[in-house]
Write a structure and sequence with these properties.
two-stranded antiparallel ribbon, elongated, disordered C terminus
């Protein structure tokens, strides 16, 4: 029996993707309600005993749960996204047993080391946020896949930053997050060498190799918004 524990993710998405996701979830809810209503007509039988009626209701609930698992019924929005996340991991070849990252590596606050600086909501088209509750084992797999897939690029970006620095804006944000006095962070940032264009291009290529949990879940949501859904297996 799969664990009921959940892991929550907050993901920035485009308005269109969110609209399509919510519409798909509403359509699936309506389809499920119609199916259940049709089955409940079996209860409208003269002389049907209470025991027999209870057995029919149990059977309906069991069939709904089974049909949600197989994808015949979409289920809740979280069920729909869960199915798509599993598909996204399979499509990328990331549905494997990842080792546990070093202690504290995936629990640090703020953005993942090496990702581009955060943009205000609305820039890049990501104007909305969606909260997703994944089964805990799947959420952990997403976090581990993102960590190990990005590890080499992140280490290269750390070496890049040691040589060239991250720039004043990034340094100030990092200092605020880590509780470092702003004047000290500013002095350190200003003292770094100015990176040439060739070095900046290397940094951009490395950043493009960093995979975040948001990247994976966003891609899964786009599968729902613009693609097809498959089965919802009980394990990864």
């Amino acid at each position: 029996m799969a664990s009921m524990a959940k892991m929550k993710f907050h993901v920035a998405v485009t308005e269109e993707s969110l609209k399509r996701l919510n519409q798909h979830a509403r359509n699936e809810r309506d389809r499920e309600e119609a199916w259940v209503s049709e089955r409940r007509r079996e209860l409208i039988v003269p002389g049907l005993s209470r025991r027999a009626a209870a057995a029919i209701r149990r059977d309906i609930r069991a069939r709904v749960a089974r049909m949600r698992r197989t994808g015949e019924l979409g289920g809740t929005r979280d069920d729909i996204v869960t199915r798509a996340v599993r598909e996204e991991l399979r499509a990328r070849g990331l549905d494997r047993k990842w080792p546990k990252p070093p202690e504290g590596e995936v629990d640090a606050p703020g953005r993942r080391w090496g990702t581009p600086p955060s943009q205000p909501m609305g820039e890049g088209g990501y104007s909305h946020r969606v909260s997703v509750n994944l089964p805990y084992s799947l959420g952990e797999a997403v976090r581990r896949a993102a960590y190990w897939t990005s590890k080499a690029a992140v280490e290269a970006l750390q070496e890049w930053a040691d040589r060239w620095g991250d720039g004043v804006n990034v340094a100030m944000r990092e200092a605020e997050r880590d509780g470092i006095p702003a004047d000290l962070a500013l002095m350190a940032a200003v003292g770094n060498l100015s990176a040439p264009q060739s070095a900046l291009e290397i940094r951009d290529r490395l950043r493009a190799q960093v995979l975040t949990t948001g990247d994976l879940i966003r891609a899964a949501i786009d599968r729902i918004a613009y693609g097809e859904q498959g089965e919802l297996p009980e394990d990864l």
